[in-house]
Amino acid sequence: MSSKVSSLFICLFILQLWAAAVVTGRKIGIYEIKKGDFSVKITNYGARIISVLLPDKHGKIGDVVSGYDTIEEYKNDTRYFGALLGRVANRIGGAQFSLNGTLYKLIPNEGNNTIHGGPKGFSYVVWKVSKYVQDGPCPCITLTYHSADGEEGFPGDVLASVTFALKDPYKLSVVFKAKALNKATPINLSHHPYWNIGGHNSGDVLSQVVQIFASNITLVDEQLIPTGEIAPVKNTPYDFLKPRKVGSRIDKIDRGYDRNYVLDSNEKMKPVAKVYDKKSGRVMDIQATAPCVHFYTANWVIDVKGKGGYVYQPQSSLSLETQGYPDAVNHPNFPSIIVNPGKTYAHTLLYTFSIKK
Predict the structure, then answer these.
(1) Nearest-CA neighbor of 298 among 115, 82, 148?
(2) Active site includes 152?
(3) In CA terms, which of 77, 170, 330, 336 is 20 to 30 Å from 13?
(4) Which residues form a coiled coil (predicted)?
């Protein structure tokens, strides 16, 4: 074989490798949006938040979300660190549902059930960067993804987007949108930052104080699939209507918190939760347009090597995932998450960070 032919084959091989890794506008990257000493880093792999940097009461900058040092580690992640969740966040019992007389069978990825959209849900795809403004008065990034008809078993094409933007002072806005293009389909988007506002490597969150503005939770079976019942939190370990330490009653439940709360407010933009860390002085206030929030205390994060070699353990962080009702496709008494063709799903989330000295 001549050297010219050999060179041609090598070039074609390299081109194939490059094409496999890069779709037009879809090279995997890390994008920072920054406003003074407030910085958020996002990767378009899974539309993930990979760091949130802000000062504590002493002015020391710290990263308040768990995560990894490399994109390769995020590709191998099974805990959804910082990930956008979809097409349907949370669990779908039996990995199936009926819609308009058709039974749709999904790909199970948690026993016989589907969680967070399936094994190749929105957390494990490369999103297109549609807009990116790193700093200035309105730092933001918009990511888009076209989910094809039949992907993970879900019906219809969906065009999804998420915009992360920094607002004054120390506010992170997250806006999810998704348009059903040609078939009715369930859509329930959320995301899964693992927060430790004391600092991702500061130990457990058991002494942090949490308030959740919800009087009820959705009950679940032994597989954490909703039964369809909604029950009050009063006089149970799940009651965070008044501020309480995460660890105040965690010993009274199995492993840790992993429950969906039904928010009390009927306002469009409603109070969700507050988190306070006394040592750092940091406070995180969450508002959202979604009707529910899932409270999770990293129960299955066991010996996970993260940023800087720090090893994460159960209760090393907490998640507050705003969302629609879980498994709503199988419970007619829950508000519907079905989006009809031509209609657009929208969900806005606002984190406000402050200091309490």
Answers:
(1) 82
(2) no
(3) 77
(4) none
